[in-house]
# Entry
Amino acid sequence: MAKQVKLTPEGLEKLKEELEDLKVNGRKEIAAKIQEARGFGDLSENSEYDAAKDAQAAMEQRIIELDNIINNAIVVTGDEAPADVVSIMSKVVVHDCDLDEDEEFIIVGSTESDPMSGKISDESPIGMALLGRKLGETIDIETPGGIIQYKILDIQK
# Structure
């Protein structure tokens, strides 16, 4: 059985749009590149043809991956848990007790994670440690960089 993937409604929509674009536009573009590369002559020594076929294989693999994600998606809205408990789709403000600074995270499924924009996966060490925690709790989180102590200052759905 395929792994279930947690997605926000927006994340699911973005993946559906990407899939549609690849199926409609991506396949046409690759087919045109392959056709153009065939015009360069002998296929056994045609690097443009090889590159186009490699791009086609990568795109088809992405289409299969997107199909699997979409077909196994569980849409989460954050409404499943009480307002004072960290869940997927929660915006959490924590105080880093070691660095004496506040940080803000949004807990999302692994497919949508983007740590540079504050979206952390529910499967990451920090995401897993925060899930199910309540406002005001102080927790120690073991990360690859060492133990971090956070105090939960705010939870928003």
